[in-house]
Task: inverse folding
């Protein structure tokens, strides 16, 4: 976190390599949030670029005293995702081809047996499909808590809502997700 | 503490995240275990959370970082002309590159030398493919012939050595055990046991001969105190004359 704050200071002084380092450190995490929210790789890539563009332009407004750079960046990402959701609500096609295709996940899945790998790919596509059926408020809460493993206080800072609301959204999101998966025929093993 | 279905649903996240107190957790467990409505909900949500935690973090597309940098810092400048040459030279001026270049050069020199190229009188014709093939073929045959001869010579030397070893081992094996500091006199022993059966037989024969001699000439065994000096002189002169 301190290193992020230092890099931000260097960026503000015009150091391009510091900005490049920040992009390399956070691009994967931001891409994952965008992908889990949209369920579409192309959209996730475009949105990740938009996030960094906005962060680059508003870098001067970041204050390390108000929280970590990662939390601030997640908050920017969340705002942009909600904007994107509202903007594309009318012409959104829920079951796109990309949703149906399982993502080949190489790095972390290496070392698993082929049958375990196949199960994981199937599970990943099912959970991802179920996530896109959640409302954006519940979806973002579940993504931040269960996929990004953020603390309640961090989610509270990102969503700018009271802690009780955070817990309530996570709770409702999980229950709703379980219901959707049950409707999809995914049974607990 | 009484626990209701509404409480279960409201505080399920806190239960799964381990944020309930011991009393609350106990009441929660008691209720869930006895409630047909809440039990499947808790089971399904636990399953969902477990599955969410199993989802791996995806790799970002490789072009993402460069696209972001292009959109924020602008396209990277392309260097041309002498600046590009200098940048290239700066790039290759590293120990890693120098080591690789030296390895390639050494390999090239070895191959050229092996193909029979004469470094003292270099000719351009030696570098023609036909010449390289002919010289390489000649060098290979020479190397094979030298190798065959070397192996054959080694075999002969080994055979000679093994024969010599066999010849040396049989007759000299026991004589070498006698210490040079105490040379034996004929007919005497140093008290040491014989080393071989043949020596033992020889010792037994000598012993039996001495016994016979002692019986025939009792004065030699010290049985008689009186020995005529004349007889001893005659016996001694006879021994000497017989030798």
Result:
């Amino acid at each position: 976190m301190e290193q992020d704050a230092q890099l931000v200071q260097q960026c503000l002084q015009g150091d391009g390599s510091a900005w490049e380092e920040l992009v390399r450190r956070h691009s994967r995490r931001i891409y994952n949030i965008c992908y889990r929210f949209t369920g579409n790789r192309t959209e996730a890539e475009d949105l990740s670029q938009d996030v960094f563009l906005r962060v680059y332009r508003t870098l001067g407004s970041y204050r390390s005293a108000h929280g970590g750079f990662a939390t601030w960046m997640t908050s920017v990402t969340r705002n942009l995702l909600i904007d994107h959701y509202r903007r594309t609500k009318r012409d959104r096609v829920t079951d796109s081809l990309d949703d149906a295709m399982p993502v080949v996940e190489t790095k972390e899945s290496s070392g698993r047996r082929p049958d375990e790998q196949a199960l994981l790919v199937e599970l990943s596509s099912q959970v991802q499909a179920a996530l896109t059926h959640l409302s954006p408020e519940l979806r973002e809460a579940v993504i931040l808590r269960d996929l990004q493993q953020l603390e309640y206080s961090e989610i509270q800072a990102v969503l700018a809502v009271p802690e009780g609301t955070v817990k309530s959204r996570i709770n409702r999101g999980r229950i709703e997700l379980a219901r959707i998966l049950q409707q999809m025929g995914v049974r607990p093993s | 503490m009484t626990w209701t279905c509404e409480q279960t649903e409201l505080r399920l996240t806190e239960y799964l995240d381990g944020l309930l107190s011991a009393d609350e957790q106990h009441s929660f467990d008691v209720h869930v275990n006895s409630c047909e409505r809440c039990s499947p909900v808790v089971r399904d949500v636990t399953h969902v959370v477990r599955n969410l935690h199993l989802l791996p973090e995806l790799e970002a597309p490789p072009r993402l970082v460069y696209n972001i940098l292009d959109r924020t810092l602008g396209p990277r400048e392309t260097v041309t002309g002498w600046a590009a040459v200098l940048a290239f030279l700066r790039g290759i001026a590293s120990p890693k590159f120098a080591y690789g270049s030296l390895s390639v050069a050494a390999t090239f020199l070895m191959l050229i030398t092996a193909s029979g190229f004469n470094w003292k009188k270099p000719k351009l014709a030696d570098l023609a493919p036909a010449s390289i093939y002919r010289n390489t073929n000649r060098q290979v045959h020479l190397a094979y012939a030298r190798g065959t001869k070397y192996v054959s010579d080694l075999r002969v030397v080994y055979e000679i050595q093994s024969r010599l070893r066999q010849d040396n081992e049989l007759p000299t094996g026991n004589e070498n055990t006698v210490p040079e500091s105490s040379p034996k006199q004929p007919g005497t022993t140093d008290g040491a046991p014989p080393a071989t059966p043949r020596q033992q037989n020889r010792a037994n024969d000598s012993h039996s001969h001495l016994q016979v001699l002692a019986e025939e000439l009792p004065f030699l065994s010290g049985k008689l105190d009186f020995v005529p000096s004349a007889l001893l002189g005659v016996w001694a002169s006879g021994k000497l004359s017989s030798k």
